[in-house]
Design a protein that fits this description.
Number of domains: 1
Largest sheet: none
Radius of gyration: 14 Å
Order of helices and strands: HHHHH
Shape: globular
Strand content: under 5%
Number of strands: 0
Structural class: mainly alpha
Helix content: 55-70%
Number of helices: 5
Distance between the termini: 24 Å
Length: about 100
């Protein structure tokens, strides 16, 4: 299962489980929130590591950019557009 798929599945579970949602939010208060989040994901059975999370967003964004404009890059990246960690929490906050 890809990182994006694991995050989507985790988000679905957090949608119905308030204690899980709070557990995920609590990781944001740690000294290293990304590492704490990934550790929590692994404890929940989702093999997500820091670099997996970072590279997944970058790879997704790069693939998206290659699929448009004939593969050329002629527009700047929007802030956070490739950050699956921040996008995950934005989705979680909207629940």
């Amino acid at each position: 299962m890809q990182t994006e798929e694991m995050l989507e599945e985790l988000l679905k579970k957090a949608k119905v489980d308030m204690s899980l949602r709070q557990k995920l939010f609590d990781t944001r208060n740690e000294k290293n929130p990304v590492s704490a989040f990934c550790k929590t994901c692994r404890e929940l059975g989702y093999e997500i590591y820091d670099m997996d999370l970072i590279s997944a967003g970058e790879e997704f964004y790069a693939a998206m950019r290659r699929s448009t404009n004939g593969g050329g890059e002629n527009s700047p990246m929007l802030k956070g557009e490739d950050d699956f960690y921040e996008l995950f929490f934005a989705s979680l906050e909207s629940l």
